[in-house]
UniProtKB/TrEMBL annotation:
PROSITE patterns: KRINGLE_1, KRINGLE_2, TRYPSIN_DOM, TRYPSIN_HIS, TRYPSIN_SER. Residues 1-19 form the signal peptide. One of its GO terms (cellular component) is extracellular space. Its EC number is 3.4.21.4. CDD domains: Tryp_SPc. The gene is LOC109092167. It catalyses: Preferential cleavage: Arg-|-Xaa, Lys-|-Xaa. This is trypsin.
């Protein structure tokens, strides 16, 4: 009798041990996906699991480490759990697991924690409401002041993958104007790798209330920009932008359009204008500013720029020059493509695109900008927006 009891006891013990030995295997068929912390909100039916480099994402629970927050996430769809600049996933590197941003171009994908500004999508700037802002300086572009984005609400931050490359200017709800040299691939540029952010105070921070995120649906580089030389003639490009819902930029305090001045309109030498960007903040610096900064510069006459500071071969009719009175404020690497805006009748007009210069804030070497007013017809041709390029807000002489 005792033998029978012992055998029964051992059998029950073995069964109990087996039941707790591999609980995940026994529960595999009953996995509950809605417990995955990545799926807290409703996702689009179109699921993406490919990165911008074309690699296939790994399941989120692939990485084995203590207290892995994704242990219950068995899928490999792109998500944005920590509010990065766009959804990402895990891929296998050479010797370790790494993050990569996902290829969400033309995909209806809503990151689980990213929310666009709660504005009526129909409220967009028009040609008659451009150039308005809330001025708000709080403290280099070289020698400039740190600026809240509401002071430069048309500034765009252009990224390739996870890397910031250039600035730009929102000139219409669906269009950003920037520099051609930001896209060395020219017509062969893979636009799906690029993204554009509006309303950014800093390139390494995310504010889902102020910011609006877009993919690039079209890139137009000026057909006469020559990548084989460094003369920067026709250094101008257009980006057509669209968000994950197929919408363009919504008008908020942190996102507005800059006005375009009339064709071939000129301002006098000495006129004060503003430049803005996220570029290097000191001479010889290796890091970008991170924070948006702006500075005031004065326009230099074409004659002085071509004969006193540069040559006619270096600065042609499609360029203009500007500098600080004391040569202490200037654009620098990383500011390329950003705006040179000038205030006329309390309205901000885009007269220049940050293009090139010799070093940064170097004495007798002013910054050189693409002269936007030479390209009104070109912009109109490629955007189909003649009302925006007519410069109707610019004061007319009686």
């Amino acid at each position: 009798m005792k033998c029978i009891l012992v055998i029964l006891l051992l059998t029950c013990t073995l069964c109990f041990i087996e039941s707790i030995k591999s609980p995940r295997e026994k529960n595999t068929s009953n996995r509950v996906k809605d417990k995955c912390i990545l799926d807290g909100s409703k996702e689009s039916k179109t699921e993406v699991s490919v990165t911008v480099s074309g690699r296939i994402c790994l399941p989120w629970n692939s990485i084995r480490y203590r207290n892995n927050p994704f242990y219950n996430c068995y899928h490999n769809y792109c998500r944005n759990p920590d509010n990065q600049i766009q959804p990402w996933c895990i891929v296998r590197g050479k010797n370790r697991y790494v993050r990569e941003y996902c290829d969400i171009t033309n995909r209806k994908m809503k990151p689980s924690t990213l929310s666009l500004p709660k504005s009526d999508p129909s409220k967009q700037d028009t040609e008659s409401s451009c150039g308005e802002r809330h001025l708000n300086l709080i403290t280099k572009i070289i020698g400039g002041k740190r600026s809240k984005v509401e002071s430069q609400p048309w500034i765009a931050a252009i990224f390739k993958g996870v890397g910031f490359i250039c600035g730009g200017t929102l000139i219409a709800p669906c269009w950003v104007l920037t520099a051609a040299h930001c896209f060395p691939g020219g017509k062969n540029t893979q636009i799906k790798k690029y993204s554009v952010y509006l309303g950014k105070n800093a390139i390494n921070e995310t504010n889902s209330v102020k910011e609006q995120q877009f993919v690039v649906s079209k890139l137009v580089v000026h057909e006469d920009f020559d990548y084989t030389t460094e003369n920067y003639n026709n250094d101008i490009a257009l980006l057509k932008i669209v968000d994950s819902n197929g919408q363009c930029a919504v008008r908020t305090d942190s996102v507005r359009t800059a006005c375009l001045p009339p064709f071939q309109k000129r301002l006098p030498a000495g006129f004060y204008c503003e430049i803005a960007g996220y570029g290097r903040h000191q001479k010889g610096g290796f890091k970008y500013s991170r924070y948006l900064k702006q500075a005031q510069v004065r326009l230099i006459s074409q004659n002085d720029c071509q004969n006193k500071y540069y040559s006619k071969d270096e600065v042609n009719k499609n360029m203009l020059c500007a500098a600080d009175r004391n040569w202490e404020k200037d654009a620098c690497q990383g500011d390329s493509g950003g705006p040179l805006v000038c205030e006329v009748n309390n309205t901000m007009f885009l007269f220049g695109i940050i293009s090139w210069g010799k070093e940064c804030s170097k004495k007798f070497n002013p910054g050189v900008y693409t002269k936007v007013t030479n390209y009104n017809n070109w912009i109109s041709l490629h955007t189909g927006l003649p009302k925006y390029t007519a410069g109707s807000r610019y004061p007319q002489k009686d």
